[in-house]
Amino acid sequence: MNGTPSNPHTTPFSRLRAALTERITRMTTDPNLNPDGPAFHPLRDLPAGTIPCALCGVPVAMAGDRDIITVLSLGSQRDPNSAHPEALLRHAQAQETTLTMTRCDTCGERRAAAVLAVAEFPEGRGRFRQAVLAEDAAELALATAAALGIPLVLGSVRALRFALDYLAPLGHGLTWRGRYSPRMVAAARRDEAASAPFSAVEPELLDEARRTFAEMLAARTARVVSVAEPGGSGCYLCGVGAVEVLSSAKARAWTTLRLRPETVGGRGGDLVVASVCWRCNDEFERQERTVGDRLMQALVLRAAGLENHLAARDLILRPTAWGVLGRREPNQSPWQHLDLAGLRADIESGQTGIEVAR
Ligand SMILES: [Zn+2]
Ligand SMILES: [Zn+2]
After folding, report:
1. Pairing relationship of beta strands 254-259 and 242-246 according to DSSP bridges
2. SS3 state at 119
3. Ligand nearest, relative to CA of residue 330
4. Residue-wise pLDDT tens digits, 180-224
5. Which of 66, 91, 168, 330 qualifies as a FRET site for 240, CA 20 to 30 Å off?
6. Ligand 2 centre and the CA of 210: distance in Å?
7. What whole-number distance in Å separates Cα of residue 113 and Cα of residue 288?
8. Measured in angstroms, how far is the CA atom of residue 277 from the centroid of ligand 1?
9. Which of 43, 44, 35, 42 is nearest to 7 (CA)?
C-alpha cells in the first residue's frame, strides 16, 4: 500500500497530522507505526542497521557522516514496584554501559539552529557561560518545543534567554538519551526505538513541559521587577540580595523556611527561621521539602549551569549556605560566595570539590 494509510475514522485534524509526520509514515508500511492508526505503539524494535536519534528516538540508518553520540548509562533505575528484592540488588549493582546514538536529520537541523542562536546572541546565554553548555541547553529547549509540537524560534537575546531558563532544565528528561542516562528507566531496552519522534515521552512529562512553556511565554512578555530581601539581608541559602520576578508575582519573591544550620554547612542543630528567595524555595519544593545536601547540591549545580553535566551527577558536594557565614553584604548573584567557576573547571577536568570564595 502506498500513500496515506486508509482509515475509516480519518478526520481533517488527523489528515493534517499525517501530513506533518509524512517523513515518518513514508518510512514504513507497518500500520503499528502510523501515529494515527488504532494499533499505534510508542515504541518499536530497533531495525537492523539503524541506531536511535539521541533526541527524538526514531531509528536512523547509519551512514558515514552522521554524528555519533556516545551515551553513558549508569545502569537501570530500580523498579519501585518490583516484588523481588534480589532483582533490585542486581539493578543496583548494574555496571556502567555505553550506548551509541546519533541525530536524525530533523534533530540535526535543530542542533544547527541551537548553535547558531548561541553564536548570534551571546548575551542570551545567561547562566550558561560556556558556549558549549549553552548550545546543549538551547538544543534541549528546541527539543522540548518539538516534543510538544509547538514552534519555537530562538531569534533574539530574550527568546534565547527565556528558552534556556525555562525549557532547557526539562529537556533532558524528554529526550531518548534521557531514557538511558544517567540511569535507564526500568522498562527501557537497548534494542528499541521510538515509533515516531518523541512518541516515547511519558504523558506526565509532556504535561509539565506544556505548563512550563506557557509560563515561559507569559514571562517573556511580562514586566519584570526586582524585589529586595525584606530584611535588607540576603537569601539564607544562595545569599542573593534581590531577585527578579514578574510584577504579578511579587508576593512569591521571598518566603521563609525553618531549617537547622548544620544541614546547610553551618553549626547548630536548633531551628532558625531563614529568609529564602523563590528560586531556592522552588528547588526546596522539588526536593520534597527537605533541606540538606541534595537540595544544596541541586541549587549550586544549577547556578553553575552544570545540572545536566553527567560528571556532576554522582558528586557529593557539601556547599555552604550564605546564611551561616555571618556576612552582612548580600551577594550580587546567587552563590557568589562559592567558587562556581572553579567548580565548573573541576568538574570538566574530572576533579570534584567546592570551596568558599575568599
Ligand atoms: Zn531526532
Ligand atoms: Zn536563594
Report:
1. unpaired
2. helix
3. 2
4. 988 888 888 999 999 999 999 999 999 999 999 999 998 888 888
5. 168
6. 26
7. 36
8. 38
9. 35
